[in-house]
Design brief:
The structure holds 4 protein chains of 4 kinds. Chain B has 2 domains: 205 residues, Rossmann fold, CATH 3.40.50.2300; 152 residues, Response regulator (Rossmann fold), CATH 3.40.50.2300. Chain B contains 14 helices and 14 strands. By secondary structure, chain B is α/β, with parallel strands linked by helices. In chain D, helix 3 runs parallel beside helix 6. Chain D has 10 helices and 10 strands. In chain D, strand 1 and strand 2 form a beta hairpin. The chains are: A mainly alpha, B alpha/beta, C mainly alpha, D alpha/beta. Chains in contact: A-B, A-C, A-D, B-C. The interface between B and C is large, with 49 and 47 residues.
């Protein structure tokens, strides 16, 4: 039998077969590009891609998860990013103003986390409210053309959030100089601010926790079960409503966390979410909808692509080139580089 | 049953929509433009109203600048109690949203819908060029628009008859001002204060008329005195990630990085990230100081950065700044709050003159005054009249103001620990060029 | 003889009426529709609509109406949302404007020449999205739109990028009334053409593909042909209307091609009712008036009108997916079916 | 134990079942047979709560469950449903699939016990516990589906067409497994097209045609029925 044969292959052969799969080829190809770029343009490209890629991964993981589990193509994902930044701004700024009056090195180092955690919580709450108020209502009424209809709902939600925030908080840029007031660190001759390094750390730790949660806990397993087979999940007694609320909450919390973490680079204003949304989509299309682990690699690839475009061609093009690349992927492999057939591709 | 109920609900929505549409049909003449003075101020006995439009980026990426325009315009108009002769001045705030197309639509609407007879102020050049079509079409004179670049002048000169309605610019073409940078830098090199390894410069800027005109203007002047332009990068106005650009500048080892952006998040991100990646070049960031809170956004990353803005030097200017801050809670910047205050006051002076001469305010009479008195240099606005930023605004060579020591000029300065240190011209210089 | 002639007389009497009826049906003209058109045509002379600013709104509404017709032709029939719709509008507009600016070609000719690149790009996009279904086709068209937007923004030599491209207007007049008749004529051409096509066997084929592409293929419909044909035609009309936009407003910026513009058309088209062709157009007028009314009166609350957009879209999607068109159908059915019933009920 | 009375059910506007009634008693192994499209699977799906019945009532041990969502039926009523398409989580390992089968059991020790029991029953699954479910062979997948179904210690097992697409020897294995379960005291309602084999191993049977039960009785009896012989056994 085929699978027995596969099982008996030597580790080497297995490695070769993995490496020549499209996922493997992509990774190898990316590594080669990264190395070449590093040689040509210096270690900066690699470091920048890694540090930026971490955040994109966080953003894309949520988007991917929500598609996998709820079959929801979320156009409002960038708005969670924006809400995250906004929350962090309103939590962090007063605290840091207070700490300027009453200096405390320990609290000063911790204050940014207060902002980021608050943003994550607010993000999760927004997700829960939206699921209960909007998506659940649609699901209850009609399941026909769910993917398209729910997508349009997210378009509506996006418009409402953007303009609601504009009315309440105005269009002004709410930004900060930096979270941690420290000299940039030098890595391989490249200077990287403490903010970016810590934020990269946050992204990686979060991804690791997230991965562990999905792989090793009962609830995480249930989430994956729903994404793979909804009926099967119901058959083993999983409460779909609960999982769906949880998934949207998780996804929006991750996006909000990314928004909060990047506040020093993306000041919060109503339409700030558009670019992160594009990027999250690039990543997700690249690695395949519903593939959470792949988001990490995808985030890196997109960041590398952007960095190289920005470096060699010019920053104005750092949207166009990745767009073209992602279109190509969508054309050649609609299910993404790492994806197997994903449900929803064939839904009309 | 359910279907019926939904039908009813939907029909109700449609009816509501139709009614709302028709409700607008009845014009509401007494309606106050948003943000204007309270309705009670109006003197009902006279009832003569002259409607002016103030054009600015009240929302969008440059909303902060728009906010300053709004506040200073209000201050200028409050000083005359919104009256000129027996006319009550009504203001329509025309939001350009920093977008030429939206600005065009908004301006046209303000004219046909709200009856705007004359306009003032404006921020971007791209907006100016677009809106000039509207002012030409409706023959509405517009005063003191800030869009600075050559395209505005070119369009003005291409058909002064038609585009003359864009009567004057609140800001001369960048080339007239950028020469200050070149002189300051060349002076420092000649004096041995600054010894760059090579005379190489990288130009950057926001991708607008302003950014490109400034960048190319400065590039040309630098090239004339022996500089080599090794890179040019123009980016979207909302761009906040510059790591690739800055690293590329760094790798090219340029001595000078020079450019501009009018959007505070963008220019502050540029300065912060330049500091972060360890860019050693001297940086000209034209426009960093245009918002009052530049130091809050950049911190000490702004040290040694060169900029060119006027200051609030006179007592009147300082008084204005204090009053401004009290009114809006924002620190005014001389180049947006200050200049627009002067511009608005000049505009009021034009209206007052028109009223004195013709006894009537209309778009025709205002334009006649501009032609007869402003463009001839007869009517100017000087420090004695109350100008707080420049010595004298003189439009005898329209559309630009006359540039020079006694007229309109910007000093060059460097930022240091949150302070502005003037380095050029020598008459006011507090220090030599500082090199890190 | 007399008998004979009287028979001939009635025959002649009937034939033209029947023929007109048949023709009317073919082009989707109903008495109610005709009445609406007549009202629309005399509207610019009825106070208060004869005021310039209301005429402007009328022009804007008619332009949106025409766009929703073209939009629904694809969305409502082959069930593919062209999320890059606005970009095709921009392509047509830019082409016509550039021809006028650089070669002095009259806008009246230019708007027809602008159709060509739009149609070609639509054709290519149609082919690109062919293999993709549902949401993936929407994503692909979205990316095409983003790429076109990016190109327009970056090819500054040609388009002047964000500086905005001034286009000569159709007429040297400050009055909006002539423009209103131009756009209403364009709207009617769009409507009649697309209605004629959907009422022919093409409509059936589109719907079959839209509902189940495999079943359609099995019953001998060539989905490739119909989908590409549909997409091309939609984009051609979009380009044509873009030409009007350019020569009416007189200024083009890449912002015209942004997703938010597509969302606007999409929202009205969906509220109007999918698959009806006329629903969106009918809805556009009250809708645009309401939105403009709110926008110009609530400047203290910028963006409130857009919130209403989003809200209405969500409410319609969840509670009344049929939209305005279904309301009309329900009422019509009630009237035509109920009247005899009512009589019998009265007899009881 | 399970009592289905007079249910109508279907998909959207398409009604499939017309007044179906059947009963399964504690410890029984009952068959529901009939031709393709007769409504066998729909009956099971309705019992499992995946389809809401349009009319009629389903009760378990006297409690009505009509309209209860599937996950609650499974959790609270001790029913397990094994669908014909299996609905395995194909990107998860065999063991993860099994653990999800015990999703409703929060007690880890009990989960372990179930796992041991299942591995004992299906040795092949124990050998392949870390392999992805999607890579299993057809027979193994059926085994896994059944094993996942009994992980929650159900009182009643609903099995839909386990022989579908299997080679005869594998079918035999599957049926043997079901018999083993019956011997363990699990009540089973089996839906099958393979009438002959089914009626040989079950206690009782129902014959469904065009959405209606047309016959019921002891399996042996049904085997001797003329209509059954003619329509299904080819005699």
């Amino acid at each position: 039998m085929a699978e027995t044969a596969l099982k008996k292959r030597s580790p080497f052969i297995e490695f070769v077969s993995k490496a020549t799969s499209s996922a493997g080829l992509t990774i190898i190809f990316t590594i080669i590009i990264a190395i070449v770029a590093t040689v040509v343009a210096g270690p900066f490209t690699l470091l920048n891609a890694i540090v930026t890629g971490g955040m994109w991964a966080l953003l894309a993981a949520g988007l991917s998860l929500v598609f996998g589990v709820m079959n929801l193509v979320n156009f409002a994902h960038g708005e969670f990013f924006m809400i995250g930044g906004l929350t962090a701004y309103y939590v962090f700024t007063p605290i840091s103003a207070y700490l300027k009056e009453n200096p405390s090195p320990f609290l000063t180092a911790l204050a940014p986390f207060a902002g980021i955690i608050a943003a994550t919580i607010v993000g999760a709450l927004v997700g829960i409210v939206l699921e209960k108020l909007v998506f659940y209502q649609l699901r209850k009424r009609t399941k026909e053309q769910w993917v398209m209809n729910s997508f349009l709902l997210t378009v509506g939600i996006s418009v409402i959030i953007i303009n609601g925030v504009q009315i309440i908080w105005g269009t002004n840029y709410k930004g900060i100089t930096s979270y941690w007031d420290a000299k940039p660190l030098e890595v391989l001759g490249v200077f990287i601010s403490v903010d970016r390094i810590v934020v990269f750390g946050i992204a990686m730790v979060t991804m690791a926790i997230f991965w562990y949660f999905l792989q090793r806990t009962t609830t995480g397993r249930a989430i994956r079960a729903v994404s793979q087979d909804e009926t099967g999940a119901q058959m083993v007694g999983i409460d779909l409503n609960r999982i769906q609320v949880l998934t949207l909450a998780l996804s929006s919390a991750l996006a909000a966390m990314a928004g909060a973490s990047l506040l020093f680079m993306f000041p919060s204003y109503p339409t700030v979410g558009l670019k992160p949304l594009y990027i999250a989509w690039y990543v997700v299309i690249l690695v395949g909808l519903g593939n959470v682990a792949g988001a990490l690699v995808g985030g890196f690839i997109v960041a590398l692509l952007q960095t190289l475009t920005g470096y060699f061609i010019g920053v104005t093009w750092d949207d166009v080139i990745p767009t073209a690349f992602v279109m190509l992927i969508l054309l050649i492999r609609p299910s993404g580089l790492f994806g197997s057939e994903v449900k929803g591709v064939h839904e009309q | 049953m359910r279907l019926k109920r939904y039908t009813l609900v939907a029909m109700f929505i449609i009816l509501a929509l139709v009614f709302a549409g028709c409700a607008q049909a009845t014009p509401e003449p007494a309606e106050e433009p948003a943000g204007g003075e309270p309705a009670g101020v109006e003197e009902p006995a006279e009832g003569k109203v002259f409607t002016i439009g103030v054009l600015g980026p009240f929302t969008g990426p440059s909303a902060r600048t728009g906010e300053e325009f709004r506040t200073s315009s209000e201050m200028a108009l409050e000083a005359i109690d919104y009256t000129i002769g027996d006319y009550t001045i009504e203001v329509v705030w025309i939001d350009s949203q920093s977008d030429p197309e939206k600005a065009t639509r908004a301006y046209e609407e303000a004219i046909v819908q709200d009856g705007v007879q004359a306009g003032a102020i404006n921020w971007h050049s791209s907006v100016s060029v677009a809106v000039m079509e509207v002012t030409a079409k409706h023959k509405v004179p517009h005063f003191f628009g800030f869009g600075a670049t050559e395209v505005v002048n070119e369009k003005f000169e291409s058909d002064p008859e038609k585009y003359g309605y864009w009567t004057s610019k609140g800001w001369p073409t960048p080339v007239k001002l950028t020469v200050g940078y070149v002189e300051a830098l060349e002076g420092a090199i000649a004096a041995g204060v600054w010894t760059p390894e090579s005379k190489t410069v990288a130009i950057y800027g926001e991708d607008t008329d302003w950014g490109r005109s400034f960048g190319e203007g400065l590039a040309g002047q630098l090239e004339e005195v022996g500089w080599e332009v090794v890179d040019r990068q123009y980016f979207p106005i909302e761009q906040t990630e510059f790591y690739p650009t800055l690293n590329s500048f760094k790798d090219q080892g340029v001595a000078l990085v020079a450019g501009t952006s009018t959007a505070p998040p963008s220019i502050s991100a540029f300065i912060k990230q330049a500091d972060e990646v360890g860019l050693e070049s001297l940086i000209i960031a034209d426009g960093l100081g245009w918002v009052g809170e530049w130091y809050d956004l950049t911190g000490d990353a702004s040290n040694y950065v060169i900029d060119q803005i006027p200051g609030f030097a006179s007592d009147a200017a300082k008084e204005f700044a204090a009053a401004f801050e009290e009114k809006s809670g924002l620190q005014p910047s001389p180049s947006s709050g200050g200049l627009s205050f002067d511009g608005m006051n000049f505009f009021i002076k034009v209206l007052q003159t028109t009223y004195a001469d013709f006894g009537e305010l209309s778009k025709e009479t205002v334009y006649q005054t501009v032609q007869d008195k402003v463009w001839t240099g007869e009517l100017t606005y000087t420090a004695e009249d109350g100008a707080i930023v420049m010595q004298e605004y003189n439009f005898s060579d329209p559309p630009d103001p006359i540039v020079g020591g006694d007229y309109y000029t910007f000093p060059v300065l460097q930022y240091m620990d949150g302070d502005q240190v003037y380095i050029f011209p020598e008459s006011i210089a507090e220090s030599d060029l500082m090199v890190p | 003889m007399t008998q004979n002639s009287s028979v001939k007389y009635t025959y002649e009497e009937q034939e033209p009426i029947e023929r007109i009826k048949r023709l009317a049906k073919k082009f989707g003209i109903s008495p109610v529709g005709l009445l609406s058109l007549v009202i629309l045509l005399i509207l610019p002379f009825i106070p208060p609509f004869n005021q310039e600013h209301l005429l402007r709104w009328l022009v804007g509404a008619a332009l949106i109406a025409a766009q929703t017709i073209a939009f629904d032709f694809t969305t409502g029939y082959i069930n593919v949302v062209n999320f890059g719709f606005a970009a095709f509008l921009g392509v047509g507009g830019y082409t016509s404007a550039l021809l006028a600016v650089n070669f002095g070609i009259s806008p009246w000719i230019g708007i027809f020449l602008g159709v060509i690149p739009s149609a070609v790009l639509g054709f290519l996009t149609g082919i690109l999205t062919l293999r993709l279904r549902g949401i993936f086709a929407a994503l692909m068209s979205w990316f095409v739109g983003l790429a076109l937007l990016g190109l327009t923004r970056n090819l500054t030599e040609l388009t002047r990028g964000p500086l905005g491209l001034n286009a000569p207007t159709f007429l040297e007049t400050a009055s909006n009334r002539p423009y209103f008749y131009i756009i209403v004529a364009m709207m009617m051409v769009t409507y009649l053409t697309l209605r004629w096509i959907t009422n022919a066997h093409y409509g059936l084929a589109f719907r079959a593909i839209g509902q189940n592409i495999d079943a359609a293929r099995a019953s001998g419909i060539n989905p490739t042909y119909y989908r590409v044909f549909n997409f091309t035609l939609q984009c051609a009309f979009a380009g044509w209307l873009g030409g009007f936009y350019a020569h009416y407003y007189g200024i083009l910026t890449p912002a015209l091609m942004a997703t938010s513009h597509t969302v606007e058309v999409l929202a009205i088209s969906y509220v109007g009712g999918r698959g009806s062709i006329w629903g969106g157009a009918f809805t556009a007028f009250p809708f645009v008036f309401l939105i403009e009314f709110l926008r110009s009166n609530l400047t203290e609350l910028p963006g409130l009108h857009l919130i209403l957009y989003g809200l209405l879209l969500i409410l319609v999607m969840i509670f009344y997916p049929g939209g305005v068109a279904q309301v009309y159908d329900t009422i019509r059915d009630r009237i035509t079916n109920r009247s005899p019933q009512n009589q019998s009920a009265a007899a009881d | 134990m399970l009592k289905v009375s007079e249910i109508d059910a279907g998909y959207g506007f398409l009604q499939v079942l017309w007044g179906v009634s059947l009963e399964v008693h504690e410890g029984e192994f009952v068959a529901l047979v009939g031709p393709n499209g007769a409504g066998k699977s729909t009956t099971l799906r309705t019992i499992a709560g995946l389809i809401e019945p349009m009319a009629g009532e389903i009760s378990i041990n006297g409690d009505p469950i009509g309209g209860m969502p599937a996950n609650l039926v499974i959790k609270e009523k001790g029913i397990s449903y094994i669908s014909e398409s299996l609905n395995l989580f194909s990107d998860m390992s065999v063991e993860e699939n099994l653990l999800l089968g015990a999703y409703t059991i929060r007690d880890k020790a009990q989960q372990k016990e179930s796992l041991a029991f299942v591995y004992d029953l299906f040795h092949r699954l124990a050998e392949r516990k870390s392999q992805l479910a999607g890579t299993l062979s057809g027979g193994e997948r059926k085994m896994l589906a059944i094993a996942r179904g009994i992980m929650s210690n159900p009182d009643l097992l609903l099995v839909d067409e386990p022989s579908l697409g299997l080679a005869p020897n594998l079918t035999h294995d599957v049926f043997q497994a079901l018999l083993k379960l019956r011997d363990q005291g699990v009540t089973i309602l089996l839906v099958e097209q393979n009438v002959n084999t089914t009626l040989h191993i079950t206690d009782r049977g129902y014959v469904i045609e065009k959405g209606q039960i047309i016959m019921e009785g002891a399996s042996k009896k049904l085997l001797n029925n003329k209509h059954v012989q003619a329509a299904y056994l080819g005699i």
